[in-house]
Amino acid sequence: LIVGSCCIDFIRKCTVIQSYDIFFYMILYSSREYINLWLWMQRLITQHSCYVPQFPKPGETIHGHKFVTSFGGKGANQSVMAARLGAKVSMVAKVGDDTFGKDTVENFTTNSVNTGQNSFVSVKGSNDLLTPGDVEKAFSQVKSAKVVVSEMEIRGETTLRALQLAKESGSLTVLNPSPAITNLDSEFYKVTDIMCINQLETELLTGLPVNDVDEAKKAALVLLERGCQKVIITLGKDGAVLVTTETKTPEHIPVDPVTPVDTTGAGDSFIGALAFYLAHLPSLPMNEIVRRSGRIAAVSVLSSGTQLSYPWKRDLPTELF
Ligand code: ATP
Q1: Would you say the ipTM is above 0.95?
Q2: Which residue spans within 132-235 are E strands per DSSP?
Q3: Which of 47, 76, 116, 210 could form a disulfide with 9 if both were Cys (CB 3.0 to 4.6 A apart)?
Q4: What is the DSSP string of 35-77?
């Protein structure tokens, strides 16, 4: 079960950056020639990505040369990744009562993600309208989820309620504290079995530098001490660091580095794969689960887009299953 955000990503031929209500944006260098500019708008309800030759200066109009429309939202990405690996996935989210909302639901269906009864709301910012009450209703419908994943693109109280309900019903909980936040209430740690977080997010949450594996190990211990059972810090081409309450000894789990085409969504790919392994191959040692999730995420960086770049089970080596 994945409780989180969904939206349509716009990767648009950009002639002008319009004045949207921008929450934050980040720039990803997808190759030497291209800058993939993501505008994260209205708390990621709609993402606009532009392929442009260089970052525009304030007030400057520049021409882009690539337009792609695709689906996103961290929760949606993670659920699609898990479903493509063969997991039975339910998604709890809100979408708008418009073409984009309908297309989003259709995309879930295409990717075998169960959305149950669709409920539409007719305002922008639908991710913010997902309430703890909605989650309670959803949990009464999804009787027994082995794994529940949530992130911070929806309201904090909703994420917390999802994790609490998951713990009460005996599910394994995965929290991806992303987008980056500087403060997380101690209650979140108590109901988190596995925290999966990237380098930058770890720096913000711990206040520690995470420039290399050794620094990631130190930060992982800090997060572990706050109360979760396991911490995974993903480190891009350097793989991940894992620490668990059992050993309290952080372990570096490398990945074979690849030359990325587009790293966008690699973290969500990792988490979707992680959720799949936790649900389907729970007897695997945790470091092996992290290793395999990392290998799958590595495949996702070899092509453009987020969900578009996620592999299906049939495209992956059988030894991963
Ligand atoms: P994003 O925010 O772009 O979705 P992220 O910062 O959350 O990504 P990363 O830590 O960059 O996530 O990457 C997640 C995983 O993807 C890594 O742990 C690794 O397994 C894989 N990965 C990313 N980049 C590479 C690379 N160049 N080579 C091999 N694997 C990679």
Answers
A1: yes
A2: 147-151, 172-176, 194-198, 230-234
A3: 47
A4: EEEEEEETTTTEEEEEEESSPPPTT------B-EEEEE-HHHH
